[in-house]
Amino acid sequence: MNTHPLQTDIHQDRGGPRQALLEVRELKKYFPVRGTGFAAQAQFVHAVDGVSFSVAKGQTLGIVGESGCGKSTTARLVAKLMAPDSGSMVFDGDGVDEFRGIALKDFRRNLQMVFQDSFASLNPRLTVAQTIAFGPQVHGMGAKDAGQLARDLLARVGMEPEQFGARYPHELSGGQRQRVNIARALAFDPRLLILDEAVAALDKSVQAQVLNLLQELKRERQLTYLFISHDLHVVHYLSDQVMVMYLGQIVEIGPVERIYGHAVHPYTQALLSAVPSMDPAHRTLASPISGDPPNPIDPPAGCRFHDRCPKAQAVCKSRAPRLMSVASDAAHQVACHLNDPQSGHREAYAVKHATPPLEEVSV
Amino acid sequence: MVVASPGYWGTVWLQLRRDPVSMAAAALLLLLVLAALLAPWLAPADPYKASMIKRLLPIGSAGHWLGTDELGRDMLTRLMYGGRLSLLMGVVPVAAAFVFGTSIGLFAGYVGGRINMLIMRTLDIFYAFPSVLLAVAIAGALGPGLSNSLLALTLVFVPQVVRVAESVTTQVRSLDYVEAARMSGAGAFSIIRVHVLGNVLGPIFVYASGLLSVSMILASGLSFLGLGVKPPEPEWGLMLNTLRSAIYLNPWIAALPGAMIFITSIAFNVLADGVRSAMELRT
Amino acid sequence: MSTPLVSIKDMGLRFTGKRTVSAVNQISLKLAQGEVMGLLGESGSGKSATLRALLRLYPQGRAQVSGQIHIAGQDVLALKGKALEQYRGGTVSMVFQEPGVAFDPVYTIGQQIVQTIQAHAKVSERDAAAQALEMLERVQIPQARRRFDAYPHELSGGMRQRAMIALALSCKPKLLLADEPTTALDATVQIQILLLLRALQKEMNMSVIFVTHDIGAAVEVADRIAVMYAGRIVEQGPVADIVQRPLHPYTAGLLASSVGAANKGQPLQAVPGSPPDMSNPPAGCAFAPRCSSASDICRTEAPPVEQMGGRSLACWFPLQLDAA
Known about the structure:
The complex is a heterotrimer of chains A (363), B (283) and C (324).
Chain A: E1 22-33, E2 43-55, E3 60-64, H1 71-78, E4 86-91, E5 94-95, H2 104-110, E6 111-114, H3 128-138, H4 143-156, H5 161-164, H6 174-186, E7 192-196, H7 204-221, E8 224-229, H8 232-238, E9 241-246, E10 249-255, H9 256-261, H10 266-273, H11 314-318, E11 323-326, E12 329-335
Parallel strand pairs in A: 3-8, 3-9, 6-7, 7-8
Antiparallel strand pairs in A: 1-2, 1-4, 4-5, 9-10, 10-12, 11-12
Chain B: H1 7-17, H2 20-37, H3 39-42, H4 75-111, H5 113-127, H6 131-142, H7 146-173, H8 176-183, H9 188-224, H10 236-242, H11 251-279
Helix pairs in contact in B: 1-11, 2-4, 2-11, 4-5, 4-7, 4-9, 4-11, 5-7, 6-7, 7-9, 8-9, 9-10, 9-11, 10-11
Chain C: E1 6-15, E2 21-31, E3 36-40, H1 47-54, E4 63-71, E5 74-75, H2 82-91, E6 92-95, H3 99-102, H4 109-120, H5 125-138, H6 144-148, H7 157-169, E7 175-179, H8 187-204, E8 207-212, H9 215-221, E9 224-229, E10 232-238, H10 239-244, H11 249-256, H12 296-300, E11 306-308, E12 311-313
Parallel strand pairs in C: 3-8, 3-9, 6-7, 7-8
Antiparallel strand pairs in C: 1-2, 1-4, 4-5, 9-10, 10-12, 11-12
Helix pairs in contact in C: 4-5, 5-7, 7-8
């Protein structure tokens, strides 16, 4: 189905099926905080602090975490909307915007993003069709072809082009606007789509429609998704792999069923049990964790979760844990002293890998 | 049956039409502009023709509906001709400031960083002076005359417009749809032209239209001080000055140019307010 | 039940102005003292408007409230002046969605709670401060004494929400209205606030009307659930019945389209279409355009609300109890 008018060899699969589509290594991004007075020590928000992961072709990686964990900043770093302070990114075996890599503009055709705020993502002065057609025109498509492409895409996302093409964003509902955003991203025929809380602001009944659309599109166009969300149910539904972030770092990453069924990191376990119960006979009795997600300004030494962790011990305060495989499963990794037999944590040998699975929706 | 949306400015116009006060102000301004433009054909007399006998005839005199000034010239004619210069001096500096100010502000806002800081802090120096003082200082330095006072007023307004333009551009720049445009690989000019400009012009226009009445009053003030238009040119501010001596003899005549300035600037302000309200997109 | 605390009969809310919008249409509900009702709905359902109307927060000129509303023996629509001021905060209080904007930024948390207490009862400032501090401790704000003197911007989202609950409960109201209090919070904070509300509600035997679009949050706190759609209550009943044996197609659709482990790999059963535009609602049943069991009568006549024991339902063709 890849007969897109803008198709060039950049678009083809260059690395082969075993090459990960996206590989990110040690991404770091610190934002300076303005100190008070002239001579104040500059403080930094450690938004993203050493994040590495890879996404295989045709898969969906779900990134979960709470406010301040850095998932949105990671998305913007991957999308190259801002430059990282350090770290590298490899897209289908090529570097991006560097010597012997692919040019930034070509990269933009391969990777697109759908933002959370469907209204702010659309230029209020342009019609919906004009917004969708803008991207292909930037890459050399003629106005008429771009307009036709826009109409075809509107139809594909379930919006009648005759009826909706000439509408302005303020005349559409939230779900409709988000469909337009998806169509706009697809206009480039990308290979990777970053969905930054793309369904969070939608009504639940509309959310289901958009999720179905995303799944269909993924199958049809062989897309790879990076799905960022705070909603664990949605992440479970969509993802093949899940990455849990806390204060700018990855605390656990692995296949979706391992994370949801056998989470190791206490934070992941807390997140999973914080989801409200759907069974009135079995309501949540106690909060799995207390306090608020902390501020990522100048995080403490040692494990960043130690002040809220029910299993914290002396070693957790002094030494930061490294990301290590769980048991013999190389795909499931966690950064916790519980998982490291040599960490000095007293429970490290007897770590239980079982955690109750996420409560199922009962109808 | 789907009705095509009238677009943004179309919607603004439809909203504006429903506001009777704004429409009245617009009608009044239209009348004034027409009177000024068509003065050579509509005016009853020669604005420069003086008559020592017919000095300071009261309002309602035969042949001189609004009386005559201290040199016997017909007031109605002088007011109509005066409107040309006064309106010109109101609109031209603001239009010029709008064009220059928006360009500078857009550039500073989009680019951000040190360049932005450099531009804005330089303009802050001008902004620190009260506009009247600045106008008088610049006009005084350049010398009297129409083009000099237009230049002086433009220079006074440019920093103000830049400030608004930069602020709005910075806001729009951080919105998701501009990020999405950056993600499309478009160049900076393309993004500014398609995405930023249209969304930024609105607030700047509203601010600039508020400046119209200020510009008129400042221009009249400059003429009053002798720094703007020179006699015998008819211009409302200048007329106020020359009629000062007549204020005890015929205060109504002396007040007429002032009344014209007052009415025109109120009309500008009311219309600007109306446009601002109409621009708030409420669907 | 003995005289219910809250008795709303055929309440309607209309906004006049450029366009007339019927935000709420003939809703009726009863709530006993100490009961928690979850008001579930999506955008345009009128759930938030209902709460604000109960507190008479809409100006007279622009909104018209009709029907009968009796809370704690008072006719709410007839209140005015001092009685209305005492009612707000004293009898009925509200917790809003955005804790950041519910507080005045130039006063400390403690000062605002004290002001509220003094507005409702004649107590000295010292006594009021003591009560305020006790309230802050009850909502489990860590280091309550320090937070008492803190400004709203110095607190995190979760703590601000706790402070807002403390403010709302400071005058021991009989009814608490909660307008999506946890929607803007992170998951781990949300569950803490939900548990807190449940605990405080039990302690104070307070009634709560909890508005949300999240079924899970409603299940955690509510005894009864009322589902709102396009300004009407389409289904009402005990929480277990609604969640496990829904009768209205909209309720069933909402539950079925919930995302979770059960549906992984399969398309979700989404309810087609989107909520109607309330300035131009469809004729007949508002849900008919989206309903798979709709037929002609649904499109012409709106179904009446029928009471069946503890449940109420407004549907021409409800789902069969055994097939649900």
